[in-house]
Design a protein that fits this description.
It contains nine helices and two strands; from the N terminus they run ααααβαααααβ. By secondary structure, it is mostly helical. The chain has two domains: about 60 residues, no CATH class; about 100 residues, no CATH class. It has a two-stranded antiparallel ribbon. α8 crosses α9. The longest helix is centred in the N-terminal third of the chain and has 15 residues. The chain is globular and about 45 Å long. The two termini are about 15 Å apart.
Length: about 180
Amino acid sequence: MIAVFLATELASVRHGPRLRELLVGQGLREHILLAPELTNPPESNWRRQLFDVYRGYGSRVGLFAGFPDDVRWEWVTLTPSELLRVMYIAYDYWVELSGGSRLAADAPARIRAGAAPFRVSSEWAIGFGEIFAAGARFPPLIDARLTAYAMRPDALPSELDVMLGTSPHIAQWGLY
């Protein structure tokens, strides 16, 4: 999960520059994120440390404050109807973008109507949706890509692989 999360955010216009800055500051090259050797313990440790500095994962602060320690991560395959029932995390931006439902499927109508949660334009989602519909394939699923898929459900494949985390304690996480 750490390798997937970091690789997807490295490609992000919003998060990539900060992540690159941290990589340079720690003397690391981008290949540990873009072509991770998951069986290389020192490399995995570097990613884990970077993820903690970047997002507070190990120390359970920021985005991961209260996140359970026993989350089990696995690849699952979802159909379009299953994917469109996925809910955003309970983060203010995503709650506002979905009109309070947290359902990604509710965001497109609001985006097309000009929704700008906290004065942040959501026009990016229209572009992502069109790029997806034109055949682009994104890295593994995170919220922004979920929105792009919801923007153009007609372009979804019959199945999509996503990384799913489960825990009997997930409801204790503040963003659940």
